[in-house]
Amino acid sequence: MLGAFGQAIRLLAAGDREVYFIAWTSLRLSLVSVVIASALSLPLGFLIGLKSFRGKKALIAFLNTLMALPTVVVGLLVYSFISRAGPFGSLGLLFTPAAIHIGQIILCFPLITSLVYSALSRLDRRLPETLITLGARPAEIFRMTIWEGRIAILSALLSGFGRVVGEVGVAMMLGGNIRWYTRTLTTAIALETSKGEFELGLALGLILMAIAFLVNFTLHGVIKHEH
Amino acid sequence: MKKVSGIALALCLVAALLPAQSGRLRLATTTSTENSGLLAVLLPPFEAKTDLKVDVIAVGTGQALRLGEAGDVDVVLVHARELEDRFVAEGYGVNRRDVMHNDFIILGPSSDPAGVRGMKDSAAALKRIADRGAVFVSRGDNSGTHVKEQSLWKAAGLKPSGRWYREAGQGMGPVITMTNDLQSYTLADRGTYLSMKDKVQLRVLVEGDPRLFNPYGIIAVNPDRFPHAAYFEAMQLIAWMTSVEGQQIIGDYKVERELLFFPDAVTE
To answer: What CA–CA distance (Å, rounded) separates A5 from B66?
Structure first.
């Protein structure tokens, strides 16, 4: 373990271009996926949290079920759709970063939506009601509610980020672990483990944890500062 | 809210359009060629010459051929002659060429409890391992090595089963590590073994049987069946691998001062 720690520091200090590229790929793919997923999750979470409609309970149960989906199953499902033999094969998405995005969005969308919904449903009910009496438009109500729940929403986004940055099923199956293209920290760890390079695998794992820590730390810092 | 969803949709579309870039070639190959480091020296000169980028997807031979059958890759480099011939006969691939060979070996602990060291008949060696009930780790993943192992059991006239026979369902590297931990036997390709030699205490116990010959072939995916396949680029890669220069790189490649592969395409 100590050896792995030393190697992680050596890898970073030596400025190994490939390690940096892999780390950057992991970070970039996960962040973009979370941003796209949240563009869908925030409105849906808002709807579920503050409005009542038919089938709401079923929708919540469905989202919670999706949260339990194993990553390989998501990978397999998306794979069967975007393989050349599948219905969307002609788009040529398999083994590209876009394929990883699709899988990651499916993975983190239910989680973020559920957390956003429970965050917003804990807010003071009087806020949207007051806004309505003041004659605010729906878009303004949405914006102000999101702003009011921003700390919990940030936590939701970070949970989503954690779900995708650390998973290997989707990245391996849909990205193909292609060097200088779709190799992420998790697929690189799987590769090194398969080669018996356990120490290097652990070192890459430590780099992954460092990245997750930095992202959490930075975003929380931003929010605290605003507060 | 509609605006946000619109932006999300637009982002998805942009993400979907991004990969439509040319100049990439997809090669599905076995973990043995990728993990041994051969492709890391063989592909860069090709990429520099042709301005193509080769995307290597390293899986087992069985899965590599399935990727070819679905049209998800442009060219395959694999090692299971029977499956390759079927792949071509069924119209999935064209222009198969021999590239190189190495050999399979039977690995085991230096204590060799089954007593197979030095045997020249690999099927007889497997039979002795089975008779003594010594633990044998099988790939169990339909890879080229697994296909070879099954043909050896067939030659030995038995169907392996029982507590001594462990089907791992994993790649060569993990299986070698597992065999080492269990102090047991396995069938491995020499390339992967050499690349992991310093991490395990296993010994080469059986080698040199003609049945252990391990040839690698490269096949372009049939452009008639898959019009989107990068056929010209695939043929360029086949030309490179079977060229004098490419074959020389293969023949010179060493790990731990040992040659890993022997070129077959250009004979002097």
So the answer is: 39
Give the integer Cα–Cα distance in Å for B236 and B48.
Answer: 13
Query: Do the bridges between strand B24-30 and strand B254-255 make them parallel or antiparallel, or are there none, so unpaired?
Result: unpaired
B103-212 in CATH: which number? 3.40.190.10
- For the stretch B48-74, pLDDT in tens is 999 999 999 999 899 999 999 999 999
Q: Which residues on chain B are in Cβ contact (under 8 Å) with A25?
A: none
Percent of chain B at pLDDT > 90 equals: 78
> Residues, chain A, total?
227
Q: Are A196 and B176 a contacting pair at CB < 8 A?
A: yes
Q: Compute the distance between CA of residue B63 and CA of residue B29 in angstroms, rounded to an integer.
A: 9
pLDDT for res B267 = 67
State which residue of chain B sits closest to A190, comparing Cα positions: B174
ipTM: 0.80
DSSP A141-161: HHHHHHHHTHHHHHHHHHHHH
Interface contact flag, A85 B5, Cβ < 8 Å: no
Kind and range of the H or E element at B63? helix B61-69
CB B186 within 8 A of CB B200: no
Q: Domain extents for chain B? A: 23-102+214-263, 103-212
Report which of A211, A204, A48, A28 is spatially closest to residue A121, judged by C-alpha positions: A48
pLDDT of B201 higher than 70? yes
Given a cut of 50, is residue B17 above it in pLDDT?
no
Largest CA distance in chain B: 74
Q: How far is residue B141 from each of residues A159, B191, B200, measured CA to CA in Å? A: 35, 18, 22
pTM given for the model: 0.86
Classify domain A2-226 at the CATH class level.
Answer: mainly alpha
Note the CATH architecture for domain B23-102+214-263. Answer: 3-Layer(aba) Sandwich (3.40)
Cα Rg of chain B, angstroms:
21
Give the A:B interface size as CB pairs under 8 Å.
83
Q: How far apart are CA B188 and CA B196, in angstroms?
A: 11
Instruction: Please tell me whether residue B142 adopts helix, strand or coil conformation.
Output: coil
Query: What average pLDDT does the segment A182-193 reach?
Result: 94
The amino acid present at A117, given as its one-letter code, is Y
Can you spell out the DSSP letters for B196-252?
Answer: HGGG---EEEE---GGGEEEEEEEEE-TTT-TTS-HHHHHHHHHHHTSHHHHHHHHH
| A36·B12 Cβ contact <8 A | yes
Assess whether the region B23-102+214-263 and the region B103-212 belong to the same CATH fold: yes
Contacts of A97 in chain B (CB under 8 A): 18-19
What's the pLDDT tens digit per position in B159-183? 999 999 999 988 899 999 999 999 9
Q: Which of B61, B35, B40, B49 is nearest to B249 (CA)?
A: B40
